[in-house]
Amino acid sequence: MATSPICVLVVDDHEPWRRFGASTIQKKPELQVVGEAADGLEAFRQAQKLHPDLILLDIGLPTMNGIEAARRIREVSPTSKVIFMSENRSWDIAEGALATGAAGYVVKSDAGNELLPAVEAVLQGKQFLSTTLAGHGSRVRMNEQFVPVTHCHEAAFYADDISLVDGYARFIESTLEMGNVVIVVVTESHRASLLPRLEADGVDVAAAIEQGSYIPLDSIDALSQVAVDGMPDRVRCSKVLGDLMIEAANGIKPENGRVAFCGEIATIMLSKGNAEGAIQLEHMWDEITRGYGVHTLCGYVRDNSLSKGNSAVFQRICAEHSAVQNLGHSVLHN
Fold it and tell me: What is the spatial distance between Cα 101 and Cα 197, in angstroms, rounded to a whole number?
């Protein structure tokens, strides 16, 4: 009696890699490639339609990055097993990818020798981590249970802009001291204020930028990239965050290094009177960053938009964060 083939979906935005994945898979007669996709959104749609047994999934995809695509695929095709294939060798990125529930991570440079063993292990219910990563002091080894990275989404409410810049500076300095990468998404005026504040504390900002450990961005520009018609868009937000994480991974020094964000994209929406958009963005950001295990600090100035008359807005913003600092007190949320 013939057995049903194992259906495989191959996802990569580079056609040569899709060909390689498909041709490698087809070396095993029991494996059948049933579909291909070149971006994350199409991967999600194909998985929803085909419910493949196995998905080979790149991370740096257009439209929706692979990590977010894997998270969404689990919602519509929970039995599909995922093996990430990426040239990125950062343990931080690999761990974030595996935290989505994926069963394997294969470095593309090693795929010629490791792809079929990875497929075999995953189909047997095991987990697979590329030897390149498993052999360099990472905290887990092949076929062991992976531990999700720590997630923290913190809100801090300051009395004025001076105290907000001081709060950002302390966060940035502590992040850099640990060898981590910090992505700073603030207004032009706050970037200008941060520079002398950091340099006065001994931070060589120019060197940190050159090394890729300090990535300054403009919050107005970032908002235009993640919003559609004034409201945050999940696909855009996922793409922006995924691209930033891959860029930031190059600046991580220790093997267990992390990426941190501090910024005020939602703050800009709130200052423009779009409280609902700000709250939705905070909710969306919290969900997306859980898969990456980053620490985010969202800075707010207590102005008219967060006055006593808008206490409901304040409470809803707090509820979207795992930790809240308000007037020097820390309030933790589950």
Answer: 41
Q: What CATH number should be reported for the domain holding residue 246?
A: 3.40.50.300
| Cα–Cα distance for residue pair 188/330, rounded to 1 Å | 28
Alpha helices in the chain (DSSP H): 15-25, 40-50, 66-76, 91-98, 111-123, 131-134, 161-177, 188-200, 205-211, 219-226, 234-249, 265-271, 275-289, 311-319
Residues 19 and 161 both lie in one domain: no
- Is residue 144 a part of any domain in this protein? no
Q: Report the candidate in 173, 261, 263 with the shortest Cα–Cα distance to residue 218.
A: 263
Q: Are 191 and 161 in contact, with CB atoms under 8 Å apart?
A: no
pLDDT of residue 333: 44
Residue at token pair 């006055």? 307
| One domain, residues 246 and 208 | yes
Q: Tell me, yes or no, whether 313 and 168 share the same domain.
A: yes
Q: What is the pLDDT of residues 232-241, one digit of tens each?
A: 998 899 888 8
pLDDT tens-digit series, residues 85-122: 988 877 778 878 888 889 999 988 888 889 999 999 99
Compute the radius of gyration of the chain from its Cα atoms.
Answer: 21
Position with higher pLDDT, 285 vs 241: 285
Same-domain pairing of 323 and 212:
yes
**129 Cβ contact partners less than 8 Å away, ≥ 6 residues apart:** 94, 98, 104, 105, 138, 140, 141, 142
Q: What is the pLDDT of residues 186-223, one digit of tens each?
A: 999 999 999 999 999 999 999 999 999 999 999 999 99
Structural domain range at position 309: 152-332
Whether residue 151 contacts residue 296, with contact meaning beta carbons closer than 8 Å, is answered with no
Shared domain for 128 and 20, answered yes or no, is yes
Domain assignment present for residue 17? The answer is yes
Assign 253 a pLDDT band (cuts: 50, 70, 90): low
**DSSP strand pairing (104-107 vs 295-301):** unpaired
What is the reported pTM? Answer: 0.61
160 part of a folded domain? yes
Block residue for tokens 């300054």: 216
Same domain, 162 and 284: yes
Number of domains in the chain: 2
